[in-house]
Amino acid sequence: MPLKAYDLLIRHSKLLGTTQLTEQLVDIGIKDDLIVAIAPTLEEPAATELDAQGLFVSPPFVESHIHLDSALTAGEPHWNESGTLFEGIQIWGERKQNLTLADVKARTLAILKQQATQGVLFVRSHVDVSEPQLIALRALLEVKEEVKDWMNLQVVAFPQDGIYSKPENEALLEKALEFGADVVGGIPHYELTREDGVRSVHRVFELAQQYDRLIDIHCDEIDDEQSRFLEVIAACAIRTGLGSRVTASHTTAFGSYNNAYAYKLIGFLQRAQINFIANPLINITLQGRTDTYPKRRGVTRVKELWQQGLNVSFGHDCIQDPWYSLGTGNMLDVAFMGVHVCQMTGRTEIDACYEMVTSNGAKTLNLQADYGLEVSKTANLIILDASDRYDAIRRRTIVRDVISQGKLLTRTTPGTTEWLGFQ
Ligand code: FE2
What we know:
Layout: E1 6-13, E2 26-31, E3 34-39, E4 46-51, E5 57-58, E6 61-67, H1 85-95, H2 101-117, E7 120-128, H3 135-146, E8 152-158, H4 169-179, E9 183-186, H5 194-211, E10 214-219, H6 230-240, E11 246-250, H7 259-272, E12 275-278, H8 280-286, H9 302-307, E13 311-314, H10 331-341, H11 347-356, H12 359-364, E14 381-384, H13 389-395, E15 399-404, E16 407-411
Parallel strand pairs: 1-4, 6-7, 7-8, 8-9, 9-10, 10-11, 11-12, 12-13
Antiparallel strand pairs: 1-2, 2-3, 5-14, 14-15, 15-16
Helix pairs in contact: 2-3, 5-6, 6-7, 10-11
The protein binds fe (ii) ion.
């Protein structure tokens, strides 16, 4: 038997060029787990062929911000009736007393499979490390290893209750890094005082340098215009030079800052070159709860950060948990809501929202060296039942095929509706 040039050959793919869709369809040749050829027509034989039928072929979705440890617990032990972040934290505080390794692993795996079928192959999950046994962290690290052949999972050690709110929390955060968490997290706006919040950001940077980890801090997730920890993160990033390894998640208070302060801050953020994550589904739901009218949207200044050339991605944040009882893990839902909440309705802005759930997320996760549809990169790609990014977001189309590390992982068949005309 002659050796086949490709293990998998995907015919008739519509790809993005540098920024635009190229109208000419191409074939993608995959050998082992790598993309080895992209050309209008590949002649060499392949073990398996797949016809993309001219559909939009994209790099996978990147879920840059989610909490897998709390997913699928909505209503346990009771529903979040006020809809606030703080009732959510209180309910989770009760639910996490009953965590077991099997419970967290089962829910995490269920969501990861749900995400993968919808084209998500890269996930950054925060995991609460305020709980003394670190059960959720151990569960996620085990799952990370178990799914590594089809899913790339990054784990953030997230001190949900604050680093300084209880004497043991600081040590638990460090222990989580010793156990192998990929990223150091923080929650400065939930520390007991402004001073503790500032100290917590400094501590996160120290730990990141000491353990050589990335940083992703829940920052200013509140409507309080006086919550100003983003400037502390920017200052630490400028002084340490860690910029692209640092992410500020949520920063919803930025939407409430006065313009004079915001203008000054944008200059500092330009110098800092950190990443930003907005979570439109959750921000529009949790924030603005203490407003009467006018009622704020509670989302950070996504469009302005993007216009400044800063890296912004969108996350789903929660799926059926104490903070958000809805959600399926579909990143096109996230992008769709981002278009609305951030008023990103220009054509280039809609395309940008697609990038916020794909390539921008990859940059936030520091994955860009091996992300994208290029020869010699790992063959992770999705075939959408869509003609382009705008079409995918508008209709929130299904992902027909998911190819992970060179192998076909899932196939979804579109549902069909028939017009019967009162027959
Ligand atoms: Fe979050």
